[in-house]
Design goal:
Oligomer: single chain
Strand content: 35-45%
Number of helices: 3
Largest sheet: 6 strands, antiparallel
Shape: elongated
Order of helices and strands: EHHEHEEEEEEEEEEE
Radius of gyration: 18 Å
Number of strands: 13
Structural class: mainly beta
Amino acid sequence: MIADVSRQPSSPSDASGPRVRSDSPPDPRTTSSPSACSRRALLALAGGGLSATSGCLSALGSSGESNADVALTTERLAFEDGFGPEVASLAGTYGEHGVWGQSEEPGVDGPTYVGAYRDSISVPGDDGSGVPESWVSADVAVVVYRLDGDEHAYRVWLWAGARADQPDGGLGRASVTRVSVGAAAGRGWTLDGYAPRGAFREGPVPVSLGERGPSGRTPLHGGGIAPDDGGRTGGDGRFGVAWQGIARDVRSANAVCEFGPASGEDRPFEARATFGIAGGRGVL
């Protein structure tokens, strides 16, 4: 089962125009069961609460997931004139689960906007009639800032918003069960920090690396948000953050991280961003 990757970033010269496919699209992958990433941290959030929610996954008659792995370089980024129009457009679909969560703007004081990336993924399904459909649809975004100074660091904001695609008729309700974002340092770069670092079962969840920004607040209405068990900083640094639960409407995940060149020299930026969604359709 292949993920539906249907939206690529706009041409850098026209942020409001039609989107065009990139020469190197995300690498989508799907499996038939939810990801095992961050299971222990997420299930520990609410004790019996989230454990009971996890047990309810059997109520989904069919489930699946889609993942995207995106190479990030400054040349790959679009929206050079700003990402504000895209943020406003996405807010129309996701509301408080938009790019900056419950914050209206990124609260940037110092970092310089470089560019952004936007795409879409979905969990495809089948209602038994053989007609292709989507159980869960999602939009994802990366917003990149340069933190000029001795380290020539970059700060990267990651967002994914997912919505359950309810059927027009018939039995079964769709649910979102997982939304995740993450990133890894590229060759010659180090992951110097990321947020959030803790596990949360109440929101909104603050996402920030300090007053310089960018920062935001992720809504949390049920389920939990936690980082991956295997997150680490350094030259081979990588991390992931995920929301997990069961929701029949919209859910999101946000994270922010900072990369610096391993040698301390100004060099072309290189990193990877990852996104994942999971969900399915119930039998009743």
